[in-house]
Amino acid sequence: KKEGLFTNNFSSLDDGRAFAKNLNEEGADIVMPVAGPVGQGSAALATELGADTLKIVGVDVDQYDTDPEHKAVFLTSVLKRMDSTVVEAIKQAQDGSFKGGVIVGTLKSGGVGLAPFHDLDGAVPAELKAEIDQIAAGIKDGSISVKGM
Fold this sequence. Notes:
The model has no long low-confidence stretch (mean pLDDT 93). The protein is an alpha/beta fold. The chain is globular, with a radius of gyration of 17 Å. The protein has helices spanning 13-25, 38-49, 63-66, 82-95, 126-141; strands spanning 30-31, 55-60, 74-80, 112-114.
């Protein structure tokens, strides 16, 4: 079942704040705003409420590093490793195997990943960390299939 809320924009910090507030009031203590700067509004709210009340999962880059004002509320970030993908394209161009088109970054290729838990590492149980590592390994070795990939 797919669920989520959509701001229909990628720029309104007020929308990010309002959506995170609504989700938190409904019981969510972790929010993953996937909408560019909209997430900064969510992070600002989480900073005001405190990480014990609301944590944020960042997107694209390690937002712990790129948003130091709100770093204390970033549980982790889902990373798009554009650097890894560009390096792969350059290697293919050098060895003559580059065909153009789309290069999809995967866990196996290092094109996507999960940032460290940083300051909130102690809030993540060891069992959950082990499960995340096991799932990532299964996706990388193909024993776990990801639909659409």
